[in-house]
């Protein structure tokens, strides 16, 4: 069923061919995790929600694969964590950006950034098209939530001092390694988990949320996921 969502997304101009290959890589890692959310992933999801709830300007960056796999959940997560949404693609294309925005808007009325070419800002040290972000979106946000993201852009955002949360099944990818909070889980499980966690946490006070973040060791958490994968092998 998950593969069908991507294939349909490809046929509808939302997913690029490279996205199908990226999904295959993700599946390989997911098999080693037993295709379930591990307790380490759940811990990272909880801390990620704490950070989103504490941030002044959080934003969820959505690409083709994410939009094809879980559009409704992404829009819901944005609502429950008071985050904004930017469509931000690795392989740029105006018609694909608009198609993704349509898919998201079908789920709910949300403001979507990243659609206006006149609102483009440029990330430093990136030569390719992935340097473009929305000047009113990712550029001015303090916390960026990324899924299935490219390593160059992740590293650039971290260098800019932004807090980066990523969902990536590959614990060895540059995105996973560079992020402040790395969720090693399938996006189709991670986002629904985070929505439930947000509902539990949004009544907690600031010191409680801060404590969860301070006590979290991202590198240690990645190592634990790697050990689980080793057992999976
Ligand atoms: O729609 P665009 O133009 O922005 O392009 C999207 C892709 C995914 C093609 C582009 O961002 C890309 O090529 O990404 P990478 O560098 O291949 O990274 C994708 C990462 O996501 C890989 O480490 C995969 O293991 C991982 N991944 C794939 N499917 C999932 C996943 N992680 C979580 N959930 C998945 N379902």
Q: What does this 3D model show about the protein?
A:
This protein is an alpha/beta fold and 233 residues long. The protein has eleven helices and eight strands. The chain has helices at 2-11, 17-32, 39-54, 64-69, 71-80, 94-107, 151-159, 174-178, 187-201, 206-214, 218-232; strands spanning 58-62, 84-87, 112-113, 120-122, 132-134, 143-147, 163-167, 181-183. The chain has a six-stranded parallel β-sheet, sandwiched between helices. Helix 3 (39-54) crosses helix 9 (187-201) and helix 3 (39-54) packs across helix 10. The longest helix has 16 residues, at 17-32. The protein is globular and about 40 Å long. The relative contact order is 0.18. The protein binds ligand PTJ. Ligand PTJ binds at residues 16, 18-19, 22-23, 25-26, 29, 63-65, 69, 89-91, 148-150, 167-170, 173, 186-187.
What's the arrangement of secondary structure elements?
Blueprint: H1 2-11, H2 17-32, H3 39-54, E1 58-62, H4 64-69, H5 71-80, E2 84-87, H6 94-107, E3 112-113, E4 120-122, E5 132-134, E6 143-147, H7 151-159, E7 163-167, H8 174-178, E8 181-183, H9 187-201, H10 206-214, H11 218-232
Parallel strand pairs: 1-2, 1-6, 2-3, 6-7, 7-8
Antiparallel strand pairs: 4-5
Bound molecules: ligand PTJ.
Residues 16, 18-19, 22-23, 25-26, 29, 63-65, 69, 89-91, 148-150, 167-170, 173, 186-187 line the site of ligand PTJ.
């Amino acid at each position: 069923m998950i593969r069908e969502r991507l294939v349909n997304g490809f046929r509808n101009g939302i997913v690029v061919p490279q996205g199908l290959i990226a999904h295959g890589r993700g599946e390989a890692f997911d098999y080693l995790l037993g295709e379930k959310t591990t307790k380490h992933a759940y811990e990272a999801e909880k801390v990620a929600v704490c950070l989103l709830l504490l941030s002044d300007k959080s934003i969820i960056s959505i690409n083709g694969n994410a939009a094809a796999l879980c559009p409704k959940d992404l829009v819901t997560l944005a609502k429950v964590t008071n985050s904004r949404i930017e469509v931000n693609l690795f392989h740029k294309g105006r018609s694909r950006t608009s198609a993704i925005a349509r898919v998201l808007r079908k789920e709910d009325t949300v403001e979507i950034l990243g659609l206006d070419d006149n609102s483009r800002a440029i990330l430093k040290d990136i030569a390719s098209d992935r340097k473009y972000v929305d000047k009113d979106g990712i550029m001015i946000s303090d916390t960026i939530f990324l899924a299935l993201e490219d390593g160059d852009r992740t590293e650039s955002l971290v260098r800019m001092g932004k807090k980066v949360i990523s969902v990536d099944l590959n614990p060895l990818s540059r995105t996973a390694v560079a992020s402040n909070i790395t969720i090693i889980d399938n996006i189709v499980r991670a986002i629904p988990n985070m929505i439930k966690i947000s509902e539990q946490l949004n009544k907690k006070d600031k010191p409680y949320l801060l404590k969860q973040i301070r006590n979290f060791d991202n590198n240690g958490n990645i190592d634990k996921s790697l050990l689980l994968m080793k057992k999976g092998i």
